[in-house]
Design a protein that fits this description.
Number of helices: 44
CATH superfamily of the domain at 117-347: Transferase(Phosphotransferase) domain 1
Helix content: 55-70%
Shape: globular
Number of strands: 10
Oligomer: single chain
Largest sheet: 5 strands, antiparallel
CATH architecture of the domain at 117-347: Orthogonal Bundle
CATH topology of the domain at 117-347: Transferase(Phosphotransferase), domain 1
């Protein structure tokens, strides 16, 4: 099998024999190392225990390509493994120390020496009970999760690749051999490296069904979850899901078929069929066969089988989720895993049959939910006894209509052609108009629901036409003050709000609220619905005080009507939390989202889509409050829920991928974020088409990601697409177009295309003024962008009044202590400094710092940014003693808030290094600049403008200390980057 070429060494270092090692082996010249003994070998490499001689003496493992194996593919695989290990830094992954080439030209790399045994052997030798095995296994999950965060899929997880060593008196598993690892976030090597379709990669006993396909199907992180599931199975039972001897006897195609199609027995069932081997297995776990089977039955069976799902969308979404469920079992809490339900089995049957079922079901569910909601609302609004016969007749008519709608997708009628949800909706709308023309009340109810379904599919023009027609019909039939008219007004207002037509939505909400208060009373739930929706409009328009008053009233109504733990109460809490986040009250937003989450989880269960939405909102609040790791954890949970509920290619999954990409970007992992954005875009384009408004958000994030990595040419067409989409959807003078133009203008400014940038930013400002009024906070943002541009163009005098006007607008609209006010104070300080007003600049920065420390706490990255600006100004003014502690504090904040390798940390290091150079503290400056350079090269790539600036700063230091040759080398690199950027500008 092809797999044998990449099989890792499985020899236990403790049991290595003299037969493995020859004098010729140990005589191989590896600079700085003495080979002690060969530990093992695979198809392409040999692994030695070695002693590193310099610069430190230590025992290491040294992997060296065999003589005669230096083919292009083997070199690429070898380099790929080295790069994969070098990316990672985790206590459960063997670390790379060094790499190089022998005197005869063979590459090698040096890694941590793992003096251990395969995890299964360690557990059996030490007779670990099940709970101890579970604790050890969760450490493996942590290590694999780390690899996934770094964009690496192992693809060959098995016990011989997980060695257990004793470290600090505790058993510690170490994952080794990334020889067939796959990168999902970046290329691992510059060498040509690909896996051909039909190549068998991995070990059969531990291989996922999608790996066994060998059809070019994209392998994602869930393939490692499957392999972890097999290792978990073996730790529990002492045997693999499929008998290894029997599996290896099968032919190549039969092995692949068995992996893809045959369901393995549950661990408890497998144990009972082991015969005498079950006694040994139980003894190794300090148990008896019957007792061990009872222990495995239930949670552990379910957890294992969920990890081993053939359908990867039903597996755990990540190793972290698998570990979390094991943790729940250990804490005697309910686990997420459970046996497949009857509904799931039916869904699998449907999936194997007509495609039309799916399209029809989409429309049917939406219609039924809409009709039920309307019916219940009507019953609350009127006396039930007077409606009984009317509702029965209406229900019959609606039932007949839906049956007819299902017939649209009957394969005998469509002659096998696929019917889309859009076609079913269009057919339904036409039939409503024709068949129910004589029953306007029933017609209007169905039309209203169909209008909302069109909107949910982002078919806004069709939705608007139906909702306006419904409103006209209800006014004509029922009169202007009927509760059903209020429903139509509310739904139409929601659509106008979604479209960004805020002024059109406002009178619709006002009329709906007036009718409902009159018809059902001030404290009715229907009134709370309109209050909540109207408040969302105020939030969109930055009218936060008005929004708060409406939301507080809606919450009070719902708590009185339903009690404190009702789903409608959770809706109000969610809206209040979003508002709190918008005005910078992030801890309050977090508290409200957590309360909403508790209610929704209790009522709907942990995997409901509404729970996922709440978790997503909570992630935003948590991230805004500075807890970036928790935000990412929450978004990963949301993604897992949505993939499980909707499948891997649903727009909701795209939204979660977009959010998770943003989380990674916040912690500086730009390369890992990019493929998430790209997958989100691919899903969205497939679902909506290339010019749909739902693409705008992910296009924008992907464009910003390219720009932050220095790929301006890659970013520009993405920003331009956003502008085109917003113009098509909203028209050329809409505020969304203004915001899109602002981003395009900023990109051009970064590229040095100042005149193009000025045109975009001035048009953006004009649009926003006209659409939102001259005193809107978004107008202030546009003014601030223009101010920055004029400073970049060397014209701080023009920038100064723009920055002052932006500050005035924000102070008036948002209050003097808002975070956006601090942002304006920063921009104004820069303009003042460049016009020579040092005291004014310092005063504004100090005020900005005070606002930020109060709003987000003293340890937020925003605080670090302002400290850094203040330190830079003080340094330029020669006040080094005041500047240095500010830089040092900014560095400590950024390292804690963003991580030690974030690009913002590099900028702080550069500033501090430059300051120390200016004060003659060269020895202290040098490692800071070297570290800044390393971070930027790894995070931003080799052609980023920030890297050029660091190279130039570092070169100045080296010249000053007499290291002229090294200085010129760095300066040449910086000049090449600048030249490339200038070339991009010229071509642009």
């Amino acid at each position: 099998m092809a797999d044998e070429e990449h099989r890792p060494p499985t020899v236990d270092p403790e049991e290595a024999t003299e037969e493995l090692t020859s004098k010729e082996d140990l005589a191989q010249p590896v600079p700085g190392f003495r080979l002690v003994q060969k530990l093992g070998e695979g198809g392409m490499g040999e692994v030695f225990e070695a002693e590193q001689l310099e610069p430190v003496r230590r025992r290491v493992a040294l992997k060296l390509i065999k003589r005669g194996m230096e083919s292009k593919e083997v070199l690429a695989r070898f380099d790929s493994e080295r790069q994969a290990l070098a990316l990672m830094n985790h206590p459960n992954i063997a670390q790379v120390h060094d790499a190089g080439t022998t005197s005869d030209g063979r590459p090698y790399f040096v890694m941590e020496f793992v003096k251990g045994v395969p995890i299964t052997k360690y557990c059996d030798t030490n007779r670990l009970i099940t709970a101890e095995r579970l604790e050890l296994f969760t450490q493996i999950c942590d290590g694999v999760q780390h690899a996934h965060h770094k964009g690496i899929i192992h693809r060959d997880l098995k016990p011989s690749n997980v060695l257990v060593k004793i470290q600090d008196s505790k058993p510690t598993p170490k994952i080794i051999d990334f020889g067939v690892a796959k990168a999902i976030a970046q290329r691992l090597t510059e060498r040509t490296l690909f896996t051909a379709i039909g190549q068998f990669i991995g070990t059969p006993e531990y291989m996922s069904p999608e790996q066994a396909e060998m059809t070019g199907l994209d392998i994602d992180t869930r393939t490692d979850v499957y392999s972890l599931g097999v290792v978990f199975y073996e730790l529990l039972v002492g045997a693999q899901p499929f008998d290894a001897t029997e599996l290896r006897r099968l032919g190549f195609d039969e092995i692949r078929r068995k992996i893809r199609e045959d369901e393995p027995p549950k661990p408890s069932t497998r144990l009972t069929k082991l015969g005498e081997e079950s006694v040994v297995a139980a003894k190794n776990r300090q148990s008896e066969p019957a007792a061990l089977a009872r222990e495995l039955h239930g949670d552990l069976d379910w957890i294992t089988m969920k990890a081993l799902e053939k359908d990867r969308t039903r597996r755990y979404g990540s190793p972290a989720e698998l570990a979390a469920d094991i943790g729940r079992h250990l804490r005697h809490e309910p686990v997420v895993a459970s046996p497949p339900s009857t509904v799931y089995r039916v869904k699998k049957f449907v999936r194997r049959h007509t495609v039309a079922v799916a399209a029809t079901a989409l429309v049917l569910v939406a219609l039924v939910l809409g009709i039920l909601g309307t019916t219940f609302g009507m019953i609350r609004a009127r006396r039930a006894e007077s409606l009984a016969s009317q509702e029965a007749e209406t229900a019959k008519q609606i039932s007949n209509f839906l049956i007819g709608l299902f017939e649209v997708s009957d394969p005998t009628e469509t002659k096998g052609e696929t019917i889309t949800a859009r076609e079913i909706l269009d057919e339904g709308a036409d039939r409503i108009r024709l068949e129910l023309a004589g029953q306007p009340a029933v017609q209007a109810r169905l039309m209203n629901t169909m209008g909302k379904v069109y909107s949910s599919l982002a078919l806004y023009d069709d939705s608007l036409a139906l909702l306006e027609e419904t409103l006209a019909t209800r006014r004509d039939v029922l009169g202007d003050r009927h509760p059903d008219v209020a429903e139509s007004l509310n739904d139409l207002a929601n659509l106008q709000r979604e479209l960004g037509h805020y002024e059109e939505a406002r009178p619709l909400y006002q009329e709906a609220l007036s009718i409902r208060e009159e018809a059902v009373g001030d404290d009715a739930p229907e009134v709370a619905e309109t209050l909540n929706d109207f408040a969302l409009l105020h939030t969109k328009m930055d009218e936060h005080q008005a929004a708060s008053a409406l939301l507080e009233r809606a919450l009070l109504i719902r708590e009185r009507a339903f009690g404190p733990n009702h789903l409608e109460v959770a809706d109000s809490l969610n809206s209040l939390a979003v508002l709190a986040g918008d005005i910078g009250e992030h801890e309050e937003a977090r508290r409200l989202h957590e309360r909403a989450l508790e209610i929704r989880t209790k009522n709907l269960g942990p995997d409901h889509p509404h729970v996922a939405t709440t978790l997503s909102n909570l992630a935003i609040a948590v991230g805004d409050a500075g807890d970036l790791e928790e935000a990412r954890r929450l978004d990963e949970r949301v993604l897992a829920i949505r993939e499980k509920v909707y499948g891997p290619d649903h727009p909701k999954v795209a939204a979660s991928l977009n959010n998770l990409g943003y989380d990674l970007e916040l912690v500086g992992d730009l390369a890992a974020a990019q493929p998430l954005y790209e997958r989100a875009l691919e899903i969205s384009e497939k679902a909506f088409g290339p010019e749909h408004p739902n693409l705008a958000a992910v296009l924008l994030n992907l464009a910003i990601n390219h720009a932050r990595q220095g790929d301006y040419e890659g970013a520009r067409p993405l920003f331009e697409r956003v502008v085109v989409i917003q113009e098509k959807v909203h028209g050329p003078d809409h505020s969304m177009v203004g915001l899109a133009l602002a981003n395009l203008g900023i990109l051009n400014a970064d590229m040095g295309n100042y005149e193009t940038a000025r045109r975009h930013l001035e048009r953006s400002l004009a649009i926003l003024k006209n659409a939102l009024g001259p005193d809107h906070p978004r107008v202030a943002t546009s003014l601030a962008n223009l101010a920055t541009l004029h400073r970049d163009m060397g014209d701080p005098e023009t920038a100064l009044p723009l920055a002052e006007r932006a500050l005035t607008i924000r102070e008036t609209a948002l209050g003097p202590d808002h975070l956006y006010v601090a942002e304006s104070l920063n921009e104004l300080a820069n303009a003042l400094f460049e016009t020579g007003d040092m005291e004014g600049a310092r005063s504004n920065l100090e005020r900005a710092l005070a606002i930020q420390q109060t709003a987000v706490g003293p340890n937020h990255s925003e605080v670090a940014l302002t400290l850094q600006s203040l330190a830079a100004m003080l340094g330029q003014a020669g006040e080094y003693d005041k500047a240095r502690p500010m830089y040092e504090r900014a560095l400590a904040i950024n390292e804690k808030a963003l991580g030690a390798d974030h690009p913002h940390v590099a900028i702080t290091l550069r500033g501090l290094g430059e300051l120390l150079t200016d004060t003659g503290e060269y020895e202290q400056a040098q490692p800071l600049l070297a570290r800044a350079l390393r971070i930027q090269e790894e995070a931003l790539g080799s052609e980023h403008p920030e890297l050029a600036e660091t190279l130039e700063t570092y070169a100045d230091l080296l010249r000053t200390t007499g290291r002229t040759a090294e200085a010129e080398e760095l300066a040449t690199r910086a000049a090449a980057i600048r030249e490339e950027l200038a070339s991009d500008k010229k071509s642009g």
